[in-house]
Amino acid sequence: MNNLAPGPMDTPSFYPAVDDDSIAYHKSSAMNGDLTKIEDIVPWVRHMLTDGWWANGQTLFLNGGYTTR
């Protein structure tokens, strides 16, 4: 069993849960200054379901360098 840890994601459910200051903080904590997008994660999901069979028991932090855990 593996885990994908995308960090804060740019999804409709994220924005109502946090205020503008929190959104700015989360964006500033990533290398590209933005939240993780679903398009960033989809290739990793495909990879783990097909060619990623060798990895097991791993957590992949697919979060654009997000610094807070």
Write a brief caption for the model.
The protein has 69 residues and is α+β, with helices and mostly antiparallel strands. Helices cover 30% and strands 9% of the residues.
Distance between the termini: 20 Å
Helices, by number, come to 2
- Average the pLDDT over all residues and give the rounded result: 90
Helix content: 25-40%
As residue ranges, the low-confidence spans are none
Task: Describe this entry's structure for a reader.
Strands 1-2 form a two-stranded parallel ribbon. It contains two helices and two strands; from the N terminus they run E-H-H-E. The two termini are 20 Å apart. The protein has 69 residues and is of the alpha+beta class. The chain is elongated. The chain has one domain. The model has no long low-confidence stretch (mean pLDDT 90).
Write the layout of secondary structure elements.
Elements: E1 3-5, H1 20-28, H2 38-49, E2 59-61
Parallel strand pairs: 1-2
Features:
two-stranded parallel ribbon; alpha+beta; 69 residues; 9% strand; 30% helix; 2 strands
